[in-house]
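ok trying this again, last paste got cut off
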Amino acid sequence: MAALATFGLAVILLPPAASAYGESITINPTSGTAGTKVIVTGSGWEENGSRGIRTPITVNGSPVGTAVPDSGGTFRTSITIPDFGNKRIVTEVAALTGSGGAATAQFVYVPPGGRTHPTTGQCAPSIHITPAAGAIGTNVLIKGNAWQAGGTVHISLPYGSKGIFNTPSASPSVGAQGGWQTIFKVAAPTPKGTYRFTATEAAPQCGGTITKTVTFTVT
């Protein structure tokens, strides 16, 4: 077992927690060409909704619109996919949180005359974290779907992070259907705060390297 941090000892992991909460988004459709209209639906944005905070929406880091969550923490808005040229790539649609994190979904950009992702569902990768927050000792499940089959995903924290997250594998293998998962356990003395996990996979069949991020808040 290894600790995903700059220091710390590995520990025996228990089954992951069953609950999940926090901001999330879904998109429809999940692939298309430049100019495609995409509906972004959000849930879990109660804090923004209660405070009247607008939620910026980006594609590959570039602003494309904003959403206005209601008091129940939900929103529905439309964005337009920018022109990324003549190469088929996997882009990231993100709704930014006030804490500097983001809820993300993947959109497969198809160049003019190109084709969408294979019918296997690969090359439209997504990532999920369960739960999104917890104290020291919490077991955290990070999993992905529709990544490039047969590859290896590498999960990391930013350089110099003070978080210690013990895991049996920070480099899970991607299965034949594009799925992968691994478990982390929050270890002492991880300070309270929000930590960003970055998952990457070299995926030439999906147009290049896939990069996805999720955040976990230590309470």
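PB: full thing came through this time. The first helix runs from residue 46 to 51.
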